[in-house]
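Project standup — Tuesday

K.O.: blocked on the structure for the chain from last sprint. Re-posting the sequence here as requested.
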Amino acid sequence: MPLRVLVTGGGRGIGRAIALRFAREGAHVAVAARNSGELDAVAAEITAAGGKGRAQQMDVGDHGSVEGGVYRAVEFLGGAMDLLVNCAGVFDVKPITSMDVASWHRHMNVNLNGPFYVTLESLDALMAGDRPHIVNVASVAARTAFPGNSAYCASKYGLRGFSDAIRLDLKDKGIRVSTVYPGATDTKIFDRVPGNWDRSKMNKPEDVAEVVWKANRATTGTPIDDLDVPPRA
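H.V.: unblocked you, prediction finished:
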């Protein structure tokens, strides 16, 4: 039976790369995001790569949107889910001296509330899946603080704690939980981030996708709780 996968933030960047990595192995992949045009393009790429794709419009920061979106994604996946990848995220550089309430809440809603909502609504389908696995894509900012990143770091530290706690809750249910900690990765996010970024030295989205693929395919007993993304040579 093909792997049944839901990837949030699947319209671009890391989420898209993860979706296509599993598609090349014949997986059925529902990709979720707010931008329907990007999703339709990725769903077509999934099918072209050898999988079966579903574009599912969803705002992960809105619980009602998540309820409906996950329900329809699970229908597409045949009633069960083997892998959930929480990859939707936002990132802005803004020091606390210029932080505003709207920006703070945006980070928390997408980066922390979103994984909670999607995980909560996916649990029944995961428990019906084969070797069910939740992957939360965090950041090195879940381990190390950076200037201008109070909201981002707080949300990603929170995601790390969420992963650690649900890993304990879900162990007896047979659901594995992994947290991935990418460093700077060359995605469109950096198109609007101030600073002199040498993007040629950054990881590529495909590097993160390979880490997720290997973790999902790892044999029982292989440590997959906390996963770093190796830097490019």
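K.O.: great, moving the ticket to review. The domain at 4-219 is CATH 3.40.50.720 (Rossmann fold). Helices lie at 13-23, 36-48, 63-76, 101-127, 150-170, 205-217.
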